[in-house]
Design brief:
By secondary structure, the protein is mainly α. It is built from three helices and no strands. The chain crosses the membrane at residues 20-45.
């Protein structure tokens, strides 16, 4: 709740657009950080996704 109170105090007296941009940019930053952490997790543990369509296309391309 302290974060919400801080946002209310810091955005008090400002217009809608700056408040919207602050909320949107922080939300976007958090989403990007979560995606980065997920990507690092997948990279560190070398998780592979099996896609038969990709393998078939690779075989066809190698035959040419």
């Amino acid at each position: 709740m302290e974060i919400i109170e801080f946002l209310i105090k810091s955005l008090k007296g400002r217009g809608f657009y700056p408040a919207f941009m602050v909320v949107f940019s922080w939300t976007y930053t958090i989403v990007l950080i979560v995606v980065l952490i997920c990507q690092l997790f997948l990279y560190i543990f070398r998780v592979k996704y099996y896609n038969p369509e990709f393998n078939n296309k690779e075989k066809i391309d190698k035959k040419r």
